[in-house]
Amino acid sequence: MGEGTFGRVLECMDVESHEIVAIKVVRSTEKYREDAMIEIGHLQTIGRNDKSGSRGCVQMRRWFDYRNHICIVFEKLGPSLYDFLQNNGFQPFSIECVRDFGRQLLESLAYMHELGLIHTDLKPENILLVSSEFNQTVGSKNTSEHCNMKKVPKSNKIKLIDFGSTTYDKECSFSVVSTRHYRAPEVILGSGWSYPCDIWSVACILVELCSGKVLFQTHENLEHLAMMERVFGPIPSYLVRRLKGKGLKYFKHERRLVWPDRYTSRESIRAVDRMPILSDLLENYADSSSRSLLDLLERMFSFDPVHRITAKEALQHSFFKQVDH
């Protein structure tokens, strides 16, 4: 079904229950075995408090050790949101889908955060549709006179996967977490992270589902921070004042970002200059939906993690109260 640095995922049949399952077969090295046992611990915590599986986190059926490979048995789910976007030519999801996905994501996060767990690696690849079924409809026009066909999921039900990087809040440190494009500013600046880093990642994901494009397409810290400032405005000076260690090198004495610096390439400057403001990313949608979604995203994209909206608070936002017609 897929593979990664950890090992591979196989589609199998449980000969006792006749259920089709997904088995994550982990590499036999000591490090990957240790990581797998930590993930199993988190999955057991999540499952113990969610017997019905209604909290939107993938359910572990069991685990076993086979020839020094830790094997974790999961319920089988559908494609990831990334795969679905890719197979759709990166055409954006409808506002109804985005609202549905956003609500479920935040419900799962609110549940995890209540348990004291921070996912730390939220991205479209780690969000799976429960069903693989879809309908075909007419999508956006391409460069020729033809219209693209667009796939629409038959069910918007999703589940979170990959708890290998999940950590307890009390274990939080100043380490680097999250996949680059979904990484919160406090992680880049080394100012300490907690639950709010998950909220920033969800906001990046929602923008990607709305636009079909990764918001921060970058691989370098200074460029990433410059892109953030281009989209959201300057990082508040009081946050810069509090920085210690590695985060300080990105700022001048006036507490402004050192951008561009003498090593910055023209391509990098152009990439930052091309960044749209947040409202332009939602131009696909009707006014009322786009206004409330923009307000929600602005609260999720607060540079200050203390002021960033929580998962529980976000679920009460007007964007999730609107009725789709």
At a glance:
By secondary structure, this protein is α+β, with helices and mostly antiparallel strands.
Q: Radius of gyration from the CA trace?
A: 21 Å
Q: Give the integer mean of the pLDDT values.
A: 92
Beta-strand portion reads 15-25%
State the secondary-structure class: alpha+beta
SS field, number of helical segments: 10
Low-confidence stretches: none
**Total number of distinct structural domains:** 2
Q: What shape does the CA trace take?
A: globular
- Biggest pleated sheet: 5 strands, antiparallel
Calculate the terminal CA-CA distance, rounded to whole Å: 37 Å
Relevant CATH superfamily of the largest domain: Transferase(Phosphotransferase) domain 1
InterPro entries: CLK_kinases, Kinase-like_dom_sf, Prot_kinase_dom, Ser/Thr_kinase_AS
Protein name: Protein kinase domain-containing protein
Organism: Ceratopteris richardii
GO molecular function: ATP binding; protein serine/threonine kinase activity
Q: Can you describe this structure?
A:
This protein is of the alpha+beta class and 325 residues long. It folds into 2 domains: 2-75, 2-Layer Sandwich (Phosphorylase Kinase, domain 1); 81-320, Transferase(Phosphotransferase) domain 1 (Transferase(Phosphotransferase), domain 1), CATH 1.10.510. 34% of the residues lie in helices and 17% in strands. The protein is built from 10 helices and 11 strands. The protein has helices at 30-48, 81-87, 95-114, 185-188, 196-211, 221-232, 237-241, 266-273, 287-300, 311-314, and strands at 2-4, 7-13, 20-26, 60-66, 69-75, 117-118, 127-129, 134-141, 147-153, 158-160, 167-168. The strands form 4 sheets. A 5-stranded antiparallel sheet has the order 1-2-3-5-4, covered by helices on one side. Strands 6-11 form a two-stranded antiparallel ribbon. Strand 1 (2-4) and strand 2 (7-13) form a beta hairpin. Helix 3 packs antiparallel against helix 5 and helix 6 (221-232) packs parallel to helix 8 (266-273). The longest helix is centred in the first third of the chain and has 20 residues, at 95-114. The chain is globular, with a radius of gyration of 21 Å. The model has no long low-confidence stretch (mean pLDDT 92). Keywords: ATP-binding, Kinase, Nucleotide-binding, Serine/threonine-protein kinase, Transferase. It comes from Ceratopteris richardii (Triangle waterfern). This is Protein kinase domain-containing protein. Pfam families: Pkinase. One of its GO terms (molecular function) is protein serine/threonine kinase activity.
